[in-house]
Write a structure and sequence with these properties.
Number of helices: 8
Number of strands: 10
Order of helices and strands: EEEHEEHEHHHEHEHEEH
CATH superfamily: P-loop containing nucleotide triphosphate hydrolases
Number of domains: 1
CATH topology: Rossmann fold
CATH class: Alpha Beta
CATH architecture: 3-Layer(aba) Sandwich
Oligomer: single chain
Bound molecules: adenosine-5'-diphosphate, magnesium ion
Length: 242
């Protein structure tokens, strides 16, 4: 299996605070990696390093053939291959769902308006929102807005999708509809790394679980590892989350 993402001995500090302390893991094509761990363990930082939103001090990060650690990295080329979705949807409030999605394909990929609209309708259908194309963000629920944000990323046809706690701000019912979209994406073969607190989702959908503790990968394995933790730290974490 060819690795889409490969982190090797990654170190990152913010001032005096060491946040990543030798992080290594790989994600192969079509894999779904769930990154779990308590608040402050470095999950978001690791994800941001993968997309070159943070610079690392030591180690290497290869993503879709890009050497992310290289100071000469072509960030635009990297970000054409990698989609990222955060907890906050960051949709433009004055644009409809469809217009929010059309923006990047037109600006970055120079698609015509007609082609961008066709594409937007296609990705909206994939997240189950075909009939909401003309709605403005404030007319949509939080879960629907998050699905538009996911559709917006999909419109760029990424090779890798990163999700950072995308359901944390949603109530359980809306969480379910967003997780369903992510599960469909996973089943469709999308390579994904998701930071999540949804342990049952991680167990069901993830091909690999990465448990981070104090800036390192403390334990990693298939989803089933959550049923049989090898370290006291993961046992305690899983116990608290369930
Ligand atoms: P997680 O996502 O697992 O909760 P983060 O990666 O967000 O953890 O944060 C790990 C640690 O790094 C925390 O102690 C946090 O306060 C610190 N940190 C994150 N981002 C910054 C930043 N931009 N400046 C300073 N400290 C930061
Ligand atoms: Mg975080």
């Amino acid at each position: 299996m060819s690795a889409v993402v490969s982190l090797t001995n990654v170190h990152k500090r913010f001032g005096a605070v060491k946040v990543l302390n030798g992080v290594s893991f790989e994600v192969g094509r079509g894999e779904v990696a769930a990154v779990i761990g308590q608040s402050g363990s470095g999950k978001s930082t690791a994800l941001r390093c993968i997309n070159a939103l943070e610079r690392i001090e030591e180690g290497t990060i290869e993503v879709c053939g890009h050497a992310v650690h290289d100071p000469k990295l072509d960030r635009r080329a990297l970000r054409r291959d990698v989609g990222i979705v955060f907890q906050s949807y960051n949709l433009f409030p004055h644009l409809t769902a469809e217009q929010n999605i059309m923006l990047a394909p037109m600006c970055v990929k120079s698609l015509s308006k007609a082609d961008a609209r066709t594409l937007a309708q296609d990705v909206l259908a994939r997240v189950g929102l075909a009939e909401k194309a003309d709605h403005y963000p404030e007319q949509l629920s939080g879960g629907q807005q998050q699905r538009v944000a996911i559709a917006r990323s999909l419109a760029m046809q990424p090779k890798l999708m990163l999700f950072d706690e995308v359901t944390s701000a949603l109530d359980p019912q809306l969480t379910g509809e967003v997780l369903k979209v992510m599960e469909d994406l996973a089943r469709g073969g999308m390579t994904m790394i998701l930071v999540t607190h949804e342990m049952s989702f991680a167990r069901k959908v993830a091909t690999k679980v990465v448990y981070m503790h104090r800036g390192t990968v403390w334990e990693t394995g298939p989803g089933a590892m959550l049923d049989d933790p090898q370290t006291p730290e993961l046992r305690k974490f899983v116990g608290g989350e369930m």
